[in-house]
């Protein structure tokens, strides 16, 4: 009797229009999770709507509004099998109007990178971004703030302004998502800091 395969959940998150659904759909196709005939059908339908490049995204974007607007609104799940794993891949929305749906997707993932708050620097107004308080002692539900975060393990991030796909994060505690936000700056001078990604280097040159 063969060894039982491990079941893993993978969630794909990132900024709106960063190519999450297209990348995920392409991955599913390359891993044999969807046949060529179905991809050709999506390609034809996408071309008829003037969105030929969206053929892979339509593997997961099922809602009519998603196809018409070219964005993911709700989480989408797709299951497929490799030689070693049973995989459930979760495509999460990146648009700010659908952040709640993204949180639902991240709560089902199997992997994470542990981070800790090093310092609460400023409490800010959620709408205007103006500073309300220096060095707050605590934050309550609904508050917005600028904080220093230190990763417990190596991670690949960039500031949101430099490269949005790597500039978002979610914070979890006791298996619950307690905060979401964007990365304002990355301290690359810190002793534990890694290298700047090639994508971020290209983004900087393009500015």
UniProtKB/TrEMBL annotation:
CDD domains: EF1_alpha_III (cd03705)
InterPro entries, sorted: P-loop_NTPase (IPR027417), T_Tr_GTP-bd_dom (IPR000795), TRAFAC_GTPase_members (IPR050100), Transl_elong_EF1A/Init_IF2_C (IPR009001)
Name the record gives this protein: (raccoon dog) hypothetical protein
Key word Protein biosynthesis present: yes
Keyword Nucleotide-binding among record annotations: yes
Similarity field: Belongs to the TRAFAC class translation factor GTPase superfamily. Classic translation factor GTPase family. EF-Tu/EF-1A subfamily.
Gene3D superfamilies xref list: P-loop containing nucleotide triphosphate hydrolases (3.40.50.300), Translation factors (2.40.30.10)
GO molecular function, one term: GTPase activity
Species this protein is from: Nyctereutes procyonoides (Raccoon dog)
Domain Tr-type G: 5-110
UniProt keyword list: Elongation factor, GTP-binding, Nucleotide-binding, Protein biosynthesis
């Amino acid at each position: 009797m063969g060894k039982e395969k491990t079941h893993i959940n993978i969630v794909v998150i990132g900024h709106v229009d960063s190519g999450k659904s297209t990348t995920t759909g392409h991955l599913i196709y390359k891993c044999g999770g969807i046949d060529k005939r179905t991809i050709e059908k999506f390609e034809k339908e996408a071309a008829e709507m003037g969105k030929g490049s969206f053929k892979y995204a339509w593997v997961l974007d099922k809602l009519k509004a998603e196809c018409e607007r070219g964005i993911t609104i709700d989480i989408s799940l797709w299951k497929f099998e490799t030689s070693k794993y049973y995989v459930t891949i979760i495509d999460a929305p990146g648009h700010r109007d659908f952040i709640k749906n993204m949180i639902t997707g991240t709560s089902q993932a199997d992997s994470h990178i542990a981070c800790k708050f090093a310092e609460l620097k400023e409490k800010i107004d959620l709408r205007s971004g103006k500073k309300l308080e220096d060095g707050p002692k605590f934050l309550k539900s609904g508050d917005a703030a600028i904080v220093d975060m230190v990763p417990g393990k190596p991670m690949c991030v960039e500031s949101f302004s430099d490269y949005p796909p790597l500039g978002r994060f979610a914070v979890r505690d006791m298996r619950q998502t307690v905060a979401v936000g964007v990365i304002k700056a990355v301290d690359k001078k810190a002793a534990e800091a890694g290298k700047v990604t090639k994508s971020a280097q290209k983004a900087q040159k393009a500015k």
